[in-house]
Amino acid sequence: MQPIYSTCGHCEYCLTGRENLCPNKQVTGETVDGGYAEYVLADADYVYKVPSSIDPETSSPLFCPGITAYGAVKKASLSPGKTAYVVGIGGVGHMVVQMAKLYGARVVGVSTSKEHQELALKVGADEVVDPGKDYSRVTPKVADSVIVFSPSQMAIDASLRLVKPGGTVVIGVNGDLRQFAFGDEVTVRGTVVGTRQDMKEVLQLAAQGKIRVEATKFPLKQANEVLKKLKNGQINGRAVLIPRSSQPEFLNFSDDFFSVPVRPYFLEGVGQLPFRVYQKRGALGRAGGAKYPV
Fold this sequence. Notes:
Elements: E1 4-6, E2 26-27, E3 39-43, H1 65-74, E4 83-87, H2 93-102, E5 106-110, H3 114-122, E6 127-129, E7 143-148, H4 153-162, E8 163-171, E9 187-190, H5 196-207, E10 215-219, H6 223-231, E11 238-242, E12 251-252, E13 257-261, E14 265-267, E15 273-274, E16 291-292
Helix pairs in contact: 1-2
C-alpha cells in the first residue's frame, strides 16, 4: 500500500490518470486507519504485486518516500547535462538523488546535516553543499532544477535563489513563496506522492537494482522512541518497524476488501503504512466465511 488508500474513480483527475489529485481520495494513516498493527484493511484496487527480488524489510519505504520522490523528479524537467539541486536529504531526498541521476543530470545534495551530506554522496550525488543553518551560503542561479523536501521556509527561500532564470522548482513541503521573482520566468510546482502507475514503475526500478532505500530496522514496539528520533533528525534515510509475527497466515476475504498481514511496515513519521500484500482479492462471491491461504 502507498499513501493513497482509495479514490472516487470518476472525477476529472481519476479519469485522466491523476488520481493522486482526487478531491475525494482516502489517505492511509490520515482519513483511514494506518499500519501501526500486524493487520490492515486494504482496497484490492490499490495494492501492488511486490517483486520477489525486493527485500520486504529494507525496501518498504518505496511505498511513500519512494513514490513521492518519483513524482517530484518527473515534474522537474530533467535531462542529461542539466544540474539538479536536491534540498533536504532525508527519507525522500535520498531517493530523489538516485532518481534524478537516472535522467542523466548532475545532482547536488543540499543539507545542513553532515550525516545527510554523506548519505547524499553514498547514494550517488555528484556534489554536496552545506548551506549554513540560515541557508545564506547558497550560490544563486546555478541550478536548472531544484527539488525541495526540507520542511523549512529558509530552504524554500534558498531554492528560489538557487534556480536559474527559466528553471524549475519542485516543492514537496508546506511554505510560502516570499522571494519569487516573476521576471525570471521560473516554474514552481507542488508535488504529492504519485499514481498507481507511478508506484508500479518505482517497484520495477527497485527490482532492477536502479534505486535502493537506506533504512534502519526497529521492532514495532519501539514506535514511539523511533518517532522521537525522526523528529530530532537522528534517523539517516528511513526507519522500518518490524511487527512481531513473521509468518503468512490465513485471511478472511470479503467482496470489496481484504485484511493484509503487515510484514513488515515502514515508519514515515506521520501517516504510517504497511508494505507487503500477500495475495490480491480474487473473483470471490458473497458466500463469506471461506478462508484462502496466502
